[in-house]
Amino acid sequence: MGELFVMNHPLIKHKITFIRDKNTGPKEFRELVKEVSMLMGYEVTRNLELEDIEIETPITTTKSKVISGKKLGIVPILRAGLGMVEGMLTLLPAAKVGHVGLYRDPETLQAVEYYCKLPKDVEERTLIVTDPMLATGVSAISALEAIKKRGAKDIKLMCLIAAPEGVKAIQEAHPDVDIYLGEMDEKLNDHAYIVPGLGDAGDRLYGTK
Ligand code: URA
Question: Taking every annotated instance into account, which residue ranges of this chain make up the domain Phosphoribosyltransferase (predicted)?
């Protein structure tokens, strides 16, 4: 079973409070999502392998650690997942970025893939899939399927807020995927919005409504 990591850090809690607040406008919302993504990125990258390189400080020659050539990819689920990319790229400037787009078929209610473009060597990369809201899990499950179908083997899912229903659905469908959450909320409402949540993350990021 993949592991579940729920961040427990005062800065993340503080910033998520203002992300949730309905009076926070898109500019501040985007900045806060970027900042929380960076803080979460610290935890998501905790197990990256290191290697020694030799450098010269102004005082002496020494061996010091750098991230060893592990290839990384960030894969936002369109559209709201895009909001988390800038923060992650700030931490991981060499990471490649793939994109997965899904829409919900109004009749079957299934997620249908309309776009998937991933780095070529996807099977050699650790992919960090971003989606701010893990609600029912339907779109994240399909996005993970789309990525695995193209060869991805090492995947982490990173969300700001989740409902327990969504986490359970991912753990059942993709038990190999580690899940990183900023916060775990109470439940879903009848319209599949997370409660208390933050509303529609895509609309709040991009000022659409
Ligand atoms: N997607 C969102 O943007 N918000 C929710 O509460 C659920 C899904």
Answer: 6-208
